[in-house]
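Colleagues,

Please find the record for the two-part complex below.
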Amino acid sequence: MGVTSALDLNDARRLRSDRARQVADLLRCQIQRGAFESGVLPKEERIVAEFGTTRNAVRDALDLLRAEGLVERLPGVGTLVTAVKVPHGLHRLLGLNETLHEHGDIVNELRAGGRITPPAAISARLGLPEGEPVVYIERLRRLGGVPLSLDQTYLEPELGTSLLAQDLEHEDVFVLIERLSGPLGRADLTIEAVNADPHSAAVLEAPRGAALLLAERLTHLADGRPVDLEFIRFRGDRLTMRGTLHRSL
Amino acid sequence: MGVTSALDLNDARRLRSDRARQVADLLRCQIQRGAFESGVLPKEERIVAEFGTTRNAVRDALDLLRAEGLVERLPGVGTLVTAVKVPHGLHRLLGLNETLHEHGDIVNELRAGGRITPPAAISARLGLPEGEPVVYIERLRRLGGVPLSLDQTYLEPELGTSLLAQDLEHEDVFVLIERLSGPLGRADLTIEAVNADPHSAAVLEAPRGAALLLAERLTHLADGRPVDLEFIRFRGDRLTMRGTLHRSL
């Protein structure tokens, strides 16, 4: 088996768009890891040489990153990094302010808050009798003034009622729960990618159809009681989730 | 604080589309958890009563789920579940065949495979001297004949070369690595949501711009050596990631 020229592997069968995707993924990863300290990507010719591919594949790759809102081409200057996504830790259960404390302050806009009689599916998840009220909170969360996530939160009624009197604008729900009810235990988490519906896109100030990370998270107190069910829409262009998996448990 | 009527919380300030999103999220979650055994959603009137919201909000919610490809309306029958996403475990490091063994067999189409001279960024991640070749493998992975993910894999050269002679069509790279090089240790994982570029969408047989889960994963052997760097595009309409987070480490 010979060594083929870098990314032009199996050239005859490999499309320019396959190479472009490959280049784009490597550049995206480098942007994310802060490899371009000046905020300017290397010149096209340098990327072509470094990746051992064609100028067309590199141009297409830069177009893909531009479509994702990560870079912008500035005539006479080059390709600038315009967005670096913030990392949400997956290594332990953390609120947004906790996990992003190095990146700035999260400010929450309370869009709704109060007691509701929930559908049976919510009662079941929270281990409550059917028909018992829960507290519902809806927040738009901003980092640096720009929307980062839209959160729908269903809380066990006693805790939730106390929580409504707290500083929901500046504090994580997790921190408030621990102050009011004692330590948290575990959370069951499901992560999906969905396209933003038009209204969610408008609220999040994202393009229609933008890719979102949708997290459903059921959080329990340390004693095992489920108290907090959340549906969180994160803007895909602003946040990644980052953690470590182990082969043996 | 009084109990407002279910999801019509703070009615005056709350838009129909906010309520629709809320209903859609709860239904999506129930679909995902297999709550509708018959594969048919309850009639609109029942959802309206159960959620304590308006018929318009329920209709909009069903439209959102239809746009996501999860349900379909069949005149005279009702709203049918057309897709249930398969769950990729986040609790430990698993290959796709391992994590989805209850859901069917994964069949891989090898789109490219061979030695390349990688860009410096790849060498650095794999702990290799610059200019040393790596093995690149590109696979389209199908479950039940339908594309689930498109994987780009960069492997340490010795291991990668042995791996090229294995049954890459039917086996997980993780299983093959363990057979050839001994037990895996940990992987560093980053998860993002991105819109599919036109070519990736075509390969994955997904709509243009479809939301994808993009995973970047660097896997190490048990002795700590990094051997496998992957960029994986999962179709957002076919797969979720599911795990448990703990508050204390």
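Chain B has two domains: 3-81, 86-242.

Comments are welcome before we finalize the supplementary table.
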